[in-house]
Amino acid sequence: LHMGKTMKEDLTVVAKYINKLYPPEFNVFSIYAELYHNYFASQAKKNAESHLEDKDIYLLLSWVHNFYPKDMRKDHALAMELDKVKLGSLLPSSLSKELEKKYLDSEEVTVKNSLSRCLDKEIQRWKEDKEPEKLNGHFQSELLGIFVIQSIYSSQKRAEDISKGVGEELSRRLLKELPAFLRSYRDAFEDFKEKSKKHTYYKPILIANINNCWNFR
Hints:
Elements: H1 2-18, H2 28-48, H3 54-72, H4 79-85, H5 93-127, E1 134-135, E2 138-139, H6 142-162, H7 164-195, H8 202-216
Antiparallel strand pairs: 1-2
Helix pairs in contact: 1-2, 2-4, 3-5, 5-6, 5-7, 6-7, 6-8
């Protein structure tokens, strides 16, 4: 963040004031821009090749795909000059793809585990001697119906915020996870229906789960 802010502020000064003090053939702005970019890119590469936590991978990819090319280089004070320089990406394509794969693998596992934990909690709630919650006057599982959908949606949204391609790939992966989760949910529910007919709130729990189906559709 500090590097990005410094580069943006300094290049703005170069574009507005320093550039015009030299003859055009000196290409002053280009020289400054290339030097800043090369240093920034070297630091990004150094970070990318080190051991990164998931949140760091996400942040670095956000810089590569979003903050750097869009927020910085499309800034109104710099865009025209930077378009002439053609600086390229902060990371080599191969390294960027490697980070994207790590991010996607990790996010897929995170969502899968999150859905599994959610179902385990829901099954545990069926076993408790409690009436299901009501949502807008109807029995419904806020935990299951809403949490699952929000988990998938927010994960897709984060990926799309990196880039359209990363978002599409994660959506493709999660489209496999959701049916797998729904099958596990169905199996657990069928088991409850079969074995828990004497449960105090048997019927409200059935209604709550049937009402969940609309949300999942």
